[in-house]
Amino acid sequence: MEIKENIVDTAEKLFLRYGFKRITMDDIAREMAISKKTIYQYFKDKNEIVCCVTEQHLKRECHDIQKLEEGAENVIEYLVKLSKQLRQHIDAVNPGVMQDLKKYFPRGWKIFMHYKQEVFLKSMVKTLKKGMDEGYFRADIDPEVLGIMRMEQIQMSFDENLFPRKHFDFTEVQMQLLRHFVAGIITDKGRELLTNYENSTETNNEKTL
Predict the structure, then answer these.
(1) pLDDT tens across 97-123, in order?
(2) Which residues contact 60 (CB under 8 A, 6 or more apart)?
(3) How many CB atoms neighbour CB 77 within 10 A?
């Protein structure tokens, strides 16, 4: 079982760095210094590995988001922590992974879409409602409409046709979209608290929103 887990972990690192399409079974075997035959003892084909990697990565993201929510005193602190985490994760991800998954691995894409609708969207709607209850987000927003918009923003940022990498910095695209989204929903009370968090983190030379 340990070998199977190592295969998935290794494949995940390679896929995130180079994209799903580019990495082959030979690449995974070479990286692990094992034979390709050993990989086939645990996985029928590359499609199966892609599905396992996608599931594992999304589960980890869900766990990380839950930890941030539980550790934040309010929704503004949660957004500040989320933006830091977002910067760290973006730096380690090849922008083409989403397009690869959608175009070449329909089973893996189906897993992603399930998490997007059933986990990430529901989490976003919950966050928006909490921010409204706390008075940090505007009372006149529709959490479901804005939640869907935010999910589509994130997915849109991976589109090479919209944001070609030779013209756009992937991290900055993500942060611009997040800043624009927050600016549209935050109240004066929320903005004041956000400024306090930003001043605190800038003192420690950390970037937030």
Answers:
(1) 999 999 999 999 999 999 999 999 999
(2) none
(3) 16
pLDDT tens column, 19-42: 999 999 999 999 999 999 999 999
Q: Which amino acid is at 21?
A: K
Three-state DSSP class for residue 36: helix
Inter-residue contact 17 to 92 (CB < 8 Å): yes
Residue 122's closest CA among 95, 100, 143, 96?
A: 143
C-alpha 190 chain-centroid distance: 24
Could you say which DSSP state residue 80 is in?
H
Q: Is 106 exposed, middle or buried (0-12, 13-18, 19+ CB in 10 A)?
A: exposed
- pLDDT tens for each residue of 125-136: 999 999 999 999
Q: How far is CA 203 from the centre of its chain?
A: 27
- pTM score: 0.89
Ordered structural domains, the chain, with CATH = 54-203 (1.10.357.10)
